[in-house]
Amino acid sequence: MTQTLDVAQFPAVWHDLTGQSASVAQLHRAAQQEAPTHAWLFTGPPGSGRSTAARAFAQALQCENPDPAQRGCSICPTCLTIASGTHPDVKVMATEKVNYGIDEIRDLIGLAQDRPATARWRIFIMEDADRMTERATNVLLKAIEEPPARTIWMLCAPSPADVLITIRSRTRKISLTIPSAESVARLLTERDGLDPEMALFAARASQSHVGVARWLASNPEARARREQIVSLPLRVGSTSQAMAEAADLIQITQQEATASAEERNTAERVRLLHSLGLSEGDTVPPKLRHHVKRLEEEQTARNRRSVHDALDKAMIDLIGLFRDVLAVQLGTDAELINEHLRDQIIGYARQGTSQHTLAAIDAIGQARTRLTSNVPPQLAVEAMLLAFVPRR
Fold first, then answer.
1. How far apart are CA 349 and CA 239, in angstroms?
2. Cα distance between residue 247 and residue 25, in whole Å
3. What is the DSSP track for 125-172?
4. Which residues, other chains included, contact 2 with Cβ-Cβ below 8 Å and sequence gap of 6+?
5. Beta strands 151-157 and 122-126: pairing type?
6. How far is Cα 327 from Cα 308, in angstroms, rounded to an integer?
7. With a threshold of 0.90, does the pTM exceed it?
8. What is the per-residue pLDDT across 125-172, written as a single tens digit (0 to 9) for each?
9. Residue 102: helix, strand or coil by DSSP?
10. Nearest-angstrom CA–CA distance, 100 and 139
């Protein structure tokens, strides 16, 4: 049984890792050592807090608090700059492309040769380490095998099987689990001041993903888009309806991706123009246009990735809906992810069989695989929705 984190037992940086008491205790002990392991692999399903754990561990390792038991105080300048992503000795790397480029890994290894500027350690956190190609992984492997002094690597991936065995064998593993919906709801209520009922709804709907739960609970538009998505199978009764709903699903996910990208893209453009001595609306001199063009190209690539991620998230929500349908069909006592749709789910479950429900879940998994293989989203979604049409 997964233990519930006792927030009074550990310093403040660990508090967001609800339900991960065993892993928190292990990292807390390691942070008190004079020579902790130089390479770590944080694994767990989406929502388990892989990158959150890595950042909290980095704060605990670098914390200025003289009491080893209180490292990770969250109030000293070092903890605050790590939390804001501005500490010179803690590099967090994430990619918004399908895979990390080999040049990105080489640049990272080059940075690892530097000695810490102000802190005890030079720390590198790599989110989505499973997106490294085999060539990129082999380049990183050398740096992990023979790390420079005072350097610590932290890799994050869904499971140990998602990275090469050569990496797994040279890292210390931290396995995280999905916390309970009640634990996530309690965190959102106590930390963020959210309404308990809304917090519990968001925790269930997000399948205990803390970040997504916070987003759903505080964003009415996001909740409305999710309701459109999870109720989609309940509306598909024929092939023609499946085709129409496929177009709607693509549109919904594009809207979600656009909503999350617009503010960030605008802020990045303003910062770039400011660094070039310009304001929004100014004509960009020809000799500076390549800077703006490069930013626009990066944003376009990221926007495409955002659409893909939004569609994948929608498919995860649909899997949750069919999981609820299957639970009803099999007569289990499992708590429904979409408890607020219980009556509609019961009605839908009576229309079909558990075999049809399992086939729909398989179709969603196949659609997710096709999207990673560059199949046009429209075709992948249409094939998926055809499997939703009730079979009598």
1. 19
2. 48
3. EETTGGGB-HHHHHHHHHHHHSPPTTEEEEEEESSGGGS-HHHHTTSE
4. 19, 177, 179, 180
5. parallel
6. 29
7. no
8. 998 888 888 888 888 888 888 888 889 999 999 888 888 888 888 899
9. helix
10. 12
